[in-house]
């Protein structure tokens, strides 16, 4: 079994902001089959839909901020219906909304409501994790509590294998827990271990201290510590439909586009 491979456009966001059409065309030329959006770069949903159709890229999914989804679920989600996305993911939670925060119970109720709105529109809601969901609530991770509380018909997983690993779990074994509930899987590689201010590497402002890239660095897929053949084998068992490459910041002296190309070349080299 092979997989279609998509790129999270956030990985090449500077290029996309400068010229979305040219960037999507370059992504297609690298051998990607689809894209996941995180913003539309001042284009209308109709324009983005038409770009993807013209280039031959599948608009698989989109990351949409939780507050934006909560403010107007149907209005916001309908934009992605227009584009043709099958999935929309909650990509990140602020500190007070996380399992360690004061509002997590409320967040779970709201995610269920957003999931119902998505279902009405024919979209499946996903949740994209970082490592902060691997905070224990009793004897369970917050991420597992989320998936136990919000039923599978309202919320599916978009596990990010880098953050699962950083959270202290083996991505292969953790993915096994969600067989049948993992339609989209984020492939992300890294070297090193968790450090202070590491979220600067994914575009989150911190206290001004630089992330210590000597201890932790995001890498193109296949250039770090992850066992991708084993992860992808488990994705087959899990019923995964799309593998999505994401690298929030470039590394190894490469540009964002070069990192995206290196990731795609590695996946081709192992048969995907």
Structural description of this entry:
By secondary structure, the protein is of the alpha/beta class. It has a single domain, classed as Divalent-metal-dependent TIM barrel enzymes (TIM Barrel). Helices cover 40% and strands 17% of the residues. It has an eight-stranded parallel sheet with strand order 8-5-4-3-2-1-12-9. A two-stranded antiparallel sheet has the order 6-7.
Summarize the structure.
This protein is α/β, with parallel strands linked by helices. 40% of the residues lie in helices and 17% in strands.
Strand content: 15-25%
Stretches where pLDDT is under 50 for at least 5 consecutive residues are: none
Q: Mind telling me the CATH class?
A: Alpha Beta
Derived from helix and strand composition plus strand pairing, the structural class reads: alpha/beta
Query: How many helices?
Result: 11
Rounded to the nearest angstrom, the radius of gyration is 17 Å
Protein topology:
Layout: E1 5-8, H1 13-18, H2 20-30, E2 34-37, H3 45-55, E3 58-63, H4 66-71, H5 73-83, E4 87-90, H6 104-121, E5 124-128, E6 136-137, E7 140-141, H7 142-149, E8 156-158, H8 161-166, H9 171-176, E9 184-187, E10 189-192, E11 216-219, H10 228-238, E12 242-245, H11 256-269
Parallel strand pairs: 1-2, 1-12, 2-3, 3-4, 4-5, 5-8, 9-12
Antiparallel strand pairs: 6-7, 10-11
Helix pairs in contact: 2-3, 3-5, 5-6
């Amino acid at each position: 079994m092979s997989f279609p491979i998509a790129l999270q456009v956030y990985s090449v966001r500077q290029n996309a902001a400068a010229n979305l059409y040219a960037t999507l065309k370059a992504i297609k030329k690298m051998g990607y089959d689809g894209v996941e959006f995180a913003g539309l770069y001042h284009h209308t949903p109709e324009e983005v839909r038409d770009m993807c159709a013209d280039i031959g890229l599948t608009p698989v999914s989109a990351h949409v901020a939780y507050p934006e989804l909560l403010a107007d679920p149907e209005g916001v989600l309908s934009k992605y219906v227009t584009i043709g996305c099958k999935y929309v993911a909650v990509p990140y939670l602020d500190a007070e909304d996380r399992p360690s925060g004061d509002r997590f119970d409320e967040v779970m109720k709201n995610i269920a409501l957003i999931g119902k709105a998505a279902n009405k529109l024919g979209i499946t809601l996903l949740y994209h994790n970082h490592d902060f969901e691997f905070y224990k609530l009793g004897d369970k991770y917050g991420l597992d509590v989320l998936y136990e509380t919000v039923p599978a018909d309202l919320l599916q997983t978009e596990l990010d294998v880098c953050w699962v690993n950083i959270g202290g779990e083996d991505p292969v074994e953790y993915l096994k827990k969600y067989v049948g509930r993992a339609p989209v899987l984020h492939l992300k590689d890294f070297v090193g271990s968790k450090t202070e201010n590491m979220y600067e590497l994914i575009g989150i402002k911190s206290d001004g201290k630089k992330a210590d890239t000597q201890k932790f660095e995001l890498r193109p897929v296949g250039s770090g510590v992850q066992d991708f053949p084993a992860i992808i084998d488990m994705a087959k068992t899990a019923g995964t439909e799309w593998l999505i490459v994401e690298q929030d910041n470039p590394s190894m002296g490469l540009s964002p586009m070069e990192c995206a190309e290196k990731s795609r070349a590695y996946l081709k080299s192992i048969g995907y």
